[in-house]
Structure formats: C-alpha cells, structure tokens
Please model this.
Amino acid sequence: MKILSSDLGSCEALPTPCDTLFLDDSKVNDPLIRGMGSMVAVGGIHVPANHCALLEKKLNSLCLDAGFPNGEAFKWSPSKKLWMYQNLVGGNRTKFILDACDIAKELSVKAVVVAEGKNWKPATSERIDHELDATKLVAERYERELKRTRKSGAIVVSAPSGGHKQAAELIKTIDNLSSEGTRYVKANHISFCYSTGFERVRCLQLADIIVSVSLAMITGRKKYSSEVFESIKPMFYSSNTGEILGWGMKIHPSPLQIQVEETLAINLSKENLITGPKFCSSNSNNYISKHTAA
Model:
C-alpha cells in the first residue's frame, strides 16, 4: 500500500482511477440509551472510481446553490464559526442534507459505519484505542467489498485534530491491514491511503453526515437524525438477503448491538421483510469470516 499523508486537495488528485473510501469519525459521550456509555464511530462513503470527481463537483454545486461561501464546509453538527450554523437551519438544512444524500445514491455511492462502546475492550486488539479499532473494522469491510467486485481502492481520511502525529498513527493502522492483516482479513485490494483537510473535500463532508447520523441513531438521538438515516440506509453495504448489521454497519460489542435493536427497534434491512438474520452472531469477526465472499 502506498501511503501519502500530504494534502490531497481534491478527488481529482488521486494518482490512479480507483474506488475511494472517504472516512470521518464521530463521538457521543452521553447516549440517551441507559447504560450504553460513551460511543465512537468511524465511517463514510465508498465512491466508485468513475464517479469520484463528479460527486465532488455536484456536492460543491449544491453548496453554492444553497448559498455557501466558497470553501465553507458542511457538517451534521456545525460549530458556531461555520456559515451553515446560522444561515442554513431547520427544514432548509434537512432538505440540503437529503439532497446531498440523493446525489450520492444517484452515483451508486455506498456507506459503511462501525461504532464501538468505549467502556468495552476494542474488537481487534487491546493495544489500540477505539477509534483506530473501528477504523480497522471499517477497512475490513471495504476490503471485502473491493474483493467481491474485483476492484482496487484508495482511502481518504479526514486529518485528525491531533495533527500530523495522530494522522500518521491512523494511516499506519490502515497500512498494517495490507502487510499484517487482522485475524480474518488482509487488505490486498487497498492501494493508497491519504490524509487531508476536512474543509477541502466535499466527499469527506458527506462522510461526516453518514457517520454522525448513524451514531446519533445508535445512541438514541432520533429526533433530528431519523429522517436522514432512512435516506442513507439503502446506501449501506448489505448481504445478499438485505441485512445491514454486520456488513455495512457494525456495533461493537454485540450486547450493544442487541440493545440498539431492542431499544430503538431500528429496521436495519433494506427490505421490509427479512429473509435472513437481522443481526450478526455474538462474535462479529467470525461473522465476517464466515460470510465473506471468495
């Protein structure tokens, strides 16, 4: 895997046409579900090679039409310093986000999210933090999808707030999937990994929407997220029979996953009728290994 940690600048800067996974993270320290504890999630969008630059262009046009000043980012939960905090609110903000999701779906964009409870041990190793652990699980699912479609892919991550040292640690985690793999997956189809500024790439901003909305739903914050979640749900990786959990969305550990199912009654299937199990077995990594296509 080739590691490039310098600024990407735009989708057009990718050195070779390939599918690209744009990743961001989200945190919720006070879930509304009793006993859940702090949660972290990593996830984003998987963009087909021939649609990467087009998605970036269409998202930027959507921003300009909505009145965004040049270079202003959009987020699910914008800070007060961002233009959209005061200038795109209520129903107009929801419509903007739904329009962005519709553009992505028209271009065959897929979604993947892994959420972890910070009061539990990480899934892959006790020696790494939950953000890196979730990143590994996301990369596993991306690798599985690339293998299934016989494609190669790049990963673009939003530069962490911790600066270059934290960015290097994140990229090294992804690189180790190629050289060492995990217990079940070795990332032979992931060719490039980048870190770049969030505000410069619209696809990363859409990744923020995907992961933030998903974690909001998982942690019981449904009031504002449920409508958008229903829109993005068809984008998630899924099994042949439509199950999303364990494929496009993973909640670690399994007791939390079951708790989300029972407490929120989130229908995580693309179809109303489930022909197979909704949720993965108690060992999610065994589930991946058992069901990964050859």
User: Anything to note?
Assistant: The chain is about 40% helix and 15% strand.
